[in-house]
Each structure stands twice: as structure tokens, then as C-alpha cells.
Amino acid sequence: MPRASSRVLVIPMRLLPRALSLASAAMLLAAPARAAMDAPSTIAALRIAGTVTGGLMPTSAPEFTQMVTAIQGGDKLKAAAIAANSNYAATYLLRRLAFQMQNPGLDATRVTDSDATMFLMAHFVRATGAQNGISGLWSENATYLVTVTRNAVATQVHGADLTAAELAGLDWSSALVRVAGQNAKAVANGTATPVAIPDKHIGGYVTLSDRPNDNSFAMFGATAGTNLRMIEGLWTISTGMQVLDFASSDAPVQSVPRFVPEYDPNFFHGTGQNACISCHGGGLTSLNHGYSTVGDLWDFDATNGFVYFATPTTATRKSLASDPKKRTANATCTLTRTPTPVCNPDSSGTDPNQAWDLTMTWGASGLLDKLGWSGPTNGQGLAALGAALGQARIVYQNFTWRAIREICPTGTFSQADIDRIAAAGKAADDIRVIVAQVASSSTCI
Asked: What DSSP letter does each residue of 64-75 carry, written as one string?
């Protein structure tokens, strides 16, 4: 008698929603009461719902019936839009994308619900009061609280205070409440007090954190160091490009932060790598490309959380060094001292007005064209930089690529497809439009 096979089918996690959808289709179509149902339309609806909602949308949901009807009418894009706009998609895909936005590695497993997450979700679902969709992610001056019912009373709480049960039953489109302004901590004589962040220095979700160790972008960017991670992360997450993609050797030494030693042998000419000046003076951490907007303003510690320095001192100025003991030496840059201070004597230092100008190197190198930059190329403060960034074409192309990786990783999309989908998302200023366009593509269904 033949021996029964002991092999087990292993389904990759990324493909699990589609596998579940097909299994659901088999059970659904097998039922006698469903015999008259349009099988191809139902299977197509299950596939879209599976990839966009992670299998959370049941076949009994009104949205699913609407999807099947739309597909029967030949409108797969409408069906995908129904899925993308559902609370199931917000709970699964949009929240996952929001988690990924908190670090350049796009690692959702390291992130939890925080004020930054709620801000991102409010813009993804276009919650009531949200001034923008994607375009406002790096500039809107607001905090979003969540309305839940506790002891029969509607209560507004921070995202980090939500229980698992509250998260499971949350209606993302109606529960998020906009509160104008953002806060950080001001620390003086060892005492931390809440302080409103000025409009000029608001970075949308990147300057949102209401407690220590909340796994927010603010925690990632402002912990220790020189805040280079903060400005690098803002650029790389929003564009999908890497640090070296922004590098340019056509930079003056004045644009290099003070703590980068100009007399290092690799400063002007790299040995087997880019010279120091190409990244620190011509890349993301150039004083002109946004570093002046964050370099001396922020810190994050395990006791106080996100800290804002309204009037930075030599002791708090991270642009002078990550090591506080070297900041005075770098500030004076007295090269006759022994040992020689670690400094760039020609650096203009971070601008106290937080000015930025993208044209000096990026305009000449063609990088602004690559970014599809359409907003102002100079200004003052993080909010102005973030508002201009939110208009760049590459932001929407990057979201399109990310949606493809999540929804249709094995699909084949041409650059023309990417550009078309990104353009639709930009016109609507809505991540859900991008999700629907990707999910309804013939290469996915």
C-alpha cells in the first residue's frame, strides 16, 4: 500500500493573504447557496481584498459585495478603491506603512503605536481635520489623539495608551481627532517641562513624541549623536534613495558641519570611497540641505523623551560634536592647541535661522530634477523644507514602489506604470489611490 506523503506546504508570509483568499474562494464557491455567484469576479475580489486588507475583510462584509459587483461591471479599479478605503485596509496595510516610516530600514517590527503613528494614520485615511494627505506628512503642525469609549464615556487618548482591544475595534476614519500644535520637553536645571514647538521647527510626524522610549521617528533621529540621523532619515524614508545617492563633491568647505575635520587626508580626496566633503558638504548632512534645520534643536533621552532647545548653548549644540566634551574645542577651533581639536575651521556652522538652500550643489548636479522638485528650493526651518519635500514627484514614486512590494511583489511594473500611478496619487494627495492602482493592475490579479 502506498505510503502517505508527510510533506507540508509552506506558504511565504508575504503571499499568505493571497493564499488565504484562494482558500476562502474555494469554500465560498463550494456552498450550494452560492452556486449562482460569478466565480471569476468573486476570486478576483478575494485576491484584491487579501492583498490590501491582509485577509481581514470577511466575505460577509458589505464592502466585499460591493467589490464583486464592481468587478462584474468591469471596474477592478473601483473594487480595489473600495478595499483601500475600508477600515480593514487601514488596520492592516496602512498601519504597517505607518510603522515603516519610523526608521530608514522600514522595519515595522521595531515600531509601536505613538503620536507619530497616529499622525501618519490620520493623513493616510484623510481623517476629519487633516489638512493634507501625503503632502503634509513632513510639515503639518498638529497632534492626533484617538477617541475611545471607557466606562461608557468617550475619551481622547494618545496612541501609545490604546489597549489591544481598543486597537482591534478602532474605526480609523472617525476615531482620530486633530489637536493643533505639537509639544516637546524643555529641560532646565534638571527639570523637564512641556513646551510648544514653534511652527517654524515642526516636521510633521518626525517631530512627534509624547513619552520616552516610544519607538517614534523622533526617538530614532534625535537620540545621542549629532542629529545627522534625523535629517538623513527624513530624506531617505521620503524618497527611497540612499545616503550616497545624494552625495556631491561640488561643495564648499563652509557647508560641512563643524565637527568634520577638514585636515583629515580623506576630506577632499577619498581613498577607495567618496571624500568626506561629498557627503558632509554636498549630501544630506550638508548645512544647506537641511542639517541646519535640526542640528542644534533636538535631543531624546530615556528620562525626558523628546527635548527641544529653544536657545541652544555650546553644551547642547550637537552640530559641534556628538561628544559633549569636544564641543567647546570645536566651537573655538583653536588649531594651535595640542592635541589639535577635531574641527573644520572654515565651517560657517549651523545657521541660527535654520536656513536651507538646495540649489548650490543639487541644482547643478541635476539631483533636483531627479527628485522632481517643484516646491521652493530655499527657505528657513524644518516646516518649510517639509512642505516643499511633500510636493516632490519622487515621494509619490517611492510610495508606489512601497505599495508594490507590499501588495504585488512578484508583479512586473514598468517605469511608465510607476509614473502613472505616482501621478494619480500626487493629484489626489492620497496613499489609498496608489494602493488601489497597484492592487487593480493586471499584473497583480
From this structure: HHHHHHHHHTT-
